[in-house]
Amino acid sequence: MDVRSRIGGALDRLEPPPRAVDWSLFAFVVAEAMTGLVSFTVGVPEGWPLFWLHRALGIGIVALLAWKLARVGRRLTDPSLWRRSTALSVLTLVAALGTLATGIVWVFGLDVRLSYWTLLSVHVGFGLALVPLVAAHAATRFRLPRRVDFERRRTAIRYTVLLAAGAATYRLQQAANDALDTAGSDRRFTGSQPREGEGNGAFPITSWVADDPDPIDREPYRLMVDGLVVDPIALNASDLAAGHETEALLDCTSGWYTVQEWGGIRVGDLLDAAGGVAAAGETPGADSDREPAYVRFTSVTGYRWSLPIEEAEDALLATHVGGERLSHGHGAPARLVAPDRRGFQWVKWVTRVEVRSEYDLGQWVVTLVSGFE
Length: 373
Ligand SMILES: Nc1nc2c(c(=O)[nH]1)N[C@H]1C(S)=C(S)[C@@H](COP(=O)(O)O)O[C@H]1N2
Ligand SMILES: [Mo]
What we know:
Layout: H1 3-14, H2 18-39, H3 48-77, H4 86-107, E1 113-114, E2 117-118, H5 119-140, H6 152-180, E3 193-194, E4 223-227, E5 233-235, H7 237-240, E6 244-252, E7 256-266, H8 267-273, E8 294-299, E9 304-308, H9 309-314, E10 316-321, E11 324-325, E12 335-337, E13 350-356, H10 363-369
Parallel strand pairs: 3-7, 4-13
Antiparallel strand pairs: 1-2, 4-5, 6-7, 7-10, 8-9, 8-13, 10-11, 10-12
């Protein structure tokens, strides 16, 4: 047997039965949406396996889609086979190809922009559209999976090989990036591309969804420090420039990162200025038995995020970047600098710092809708 037919034979053995291909595509797309969304919250290098899983699954989808198209492609190309559901199939295919293509181009480090969207944002858009499309598409030709399609040992081997081949392909791609010295080789483990330079002009101004407040006047500006603290206070803009400096990496989920020197006040010092965190029983009033656990940072727009107290104390409320006073777009007079957290958690235009006892579930919604009328 020559090498060609050997590889062909191996590929044939790897190919799941038709119904299993369909169900696997559905499961892989759902898994991609989940790993993709969860990866948005990961900023520490130990989180790398999640990103690798996302890439391996994506390459798995390429293989599954190739098998599927080899089987049913004629239903799309031969007009006599068109049915009402064909339009949906085509739409689903377009979304799938769009997601795959943007993902693949992204790993090569190409920095194409569609207006102010990075290719990674377009990838996310296609991916989010793909989930309901795949679900609707599956519903038009629903067939329950059968036990014979997922015979245990073969299934386990098949999917292990598929994912391992996906991871190996990604590893090869990285080697190609390094060898060809493409921009892709400078990417972080999160996939983000570097933005070099220092200060306000060195990195983009990014609002997560719709936040776009008017510039804040420094004179009337006050920062409230309250909640479970001993002596709630209001500080003005110059109180905040307390001369603490820290280098930290901002990694935005739209696919870029930058390392900057941030200046401002340590949040721990800020809480000390308010008499310190009040232990349970120390605050007057009805909620005196609350145990302080989180510090919540709220923007003038309502956008907000909380950090566990210990982490918050070491975070910075920044007034400066790269030695310059923060520009309005980057969050003046003060923005949160939360090392190891993804960019969307670095609240800009902070007007309130509040010690709380409870986890703030609402922040997940508020960051998506703040800024809308
Ligand atoms: N109030 C507020 N803070 C915000 C955002 C926002 O939309 N509103 N966007 C976040 C996102 S998604 C990122 S990546 C960083 C970007 O900071 P930059 O605009 O200074 O680059 O700010 C974060 N802070
Ligand atoms: Mo972001």
